[in-house]
Amino acid sequence: MFFSNYGGLNRNAINLLFLILIVWSFVSMGPQGWMQILMLIPAIVIGISTHEFAHANAADKLGDTTPRSQGRLTLNPLKHLDFFGTLLIFGCNFGWGKPVQINPDNFVNTNRSKSFCEVMVALAGPLMNFFIAIIMAFILTAIEVFEISFFNTQAGLILYQVLANILMINVGLGVFNLIPLPPLDGDKIFKNILPYKARYFLDRNTYTIQVMFLILYFFGILSYITAPIIAVISKGIVNMASYVMYGIAWVIFKIIG
């Protein structure tokens, strides 16, 4: 996600709440849970780093050098991972990276409106996550189609699960960030296509909307909405990759056979 400014809930109060959730989650976690965390680390690092880099790169391409000046035009995870946000993903399946800050006034050098540029920057993050998921789907499908023997070993099975986690986490990040609630990317996309009065109303009620967001999440209501969408998109990506890879395999076998 990215921000051109920040407002709403008190950061100290929210950080305290999140710290309590993190401690509770880790204390109540068994050995299997810790193993799952280790398997998720590559997926989280790749998902967040590429997501935030995509925001920074899109803003830079559209004329805003703010992310570049802040060192965000990189894939270095240390520049993009947020301490609380990362721990929360491992412990609570909810979190964030360091927001990429932009200055919409710098978009005047393009032939597009500021609103259009903000929408493009907001879309860049989720689209990058979907792109990473598609790459993983092709890799996983290629492993199955060409029956690579290494993935029948213990190390191979672990690597296969890591790749599958990268696919699922990136689809999840892409879908979750498109929810039209602050501070997610979907909020920037949604507000920039609304009339001015509607945007003004949403800006004045940011605090209330953020509280609603937290309530929807902690009571699991968001999961009822996002889980089926994530499942459908993941299945669609895998099926697409399967058709393509089986087609490539058929051509290869025809040529060498």
Would you kindly provide a written description of the structure presented here, covering whatever features stand out?
It is globular, with a radius of gyration of 20 Å. The protein contains ten helices and two strands; from the N terminus they run βααααβαααααα. It has one domain (2-256). The relative contact order is 0.12. Strands 1-2 form a two-stranded parallel sheet. Residues 1-8 have low confidence and may be disordered. With 257 residues, the chain is mainly α. Helix 1 crosses helix 4 (83-92), helix 5 (114-145) packs antiparallel against helix 6 and helix 5 crosses helix 7 (185-191).
Could you provide a short overview of the structure?
This protein has 257 residues and is mainly α. The protein has 10 helices and 2 strands, in the order βααααβαααααα.
